[in-house]
Amino acid sequence: MNPKIEVFHLGTSIFKGKMLTLPFKKAIIRERGQSLFGDDDPCAIQESQIRRTLVKEMLSVFDDELSGQRHIEMMQWLDFDHPEDLIIRKR
Fold it and tell me: pLDDT tens digits for 16-51?
């Protein structure tokens, strides 16, 4: 549920860590907080559940990698510039 991953932007590594520690944008956290809990300012426990939900969605389509070319909507959840150029690989 929480594999080690590496995020690349145009071939350069910009993040290494576990999927649950990915920097999700505050907007997606608020949006999901509203849809899951009816609260656009989720507490830490709710935010943890939101992160788990987002990671679970990402893992459902994760083969060898996630890329901005094929998974742009998910890449736009992340707080990185140029999501279309991102690639996430398991380590």
Answer: 999 999 999 999 999 999 999 999 899 999 999 999
C-alpha to C-alpha distance for 89 and 35, rounded to whole angstroms: 29
Residues 6+ apart with CB under 8 A from 11: none
Which of 46, 54, 53 has the alpha carbon at shortest distance from 88? Answer: 54
Question: What DSSP element (H or E) covers 46?
Answer: helix 44-60
Taking each helix axis from N to C end, the angle separating 26-37 and 44-60, rounded to the nearest 10 degrees, works out to 100
State how far the Cα of 4 lies from the Cα of 38, in Å rounded to an integer. 31
3-state class (DSSP) for residue 90: strand
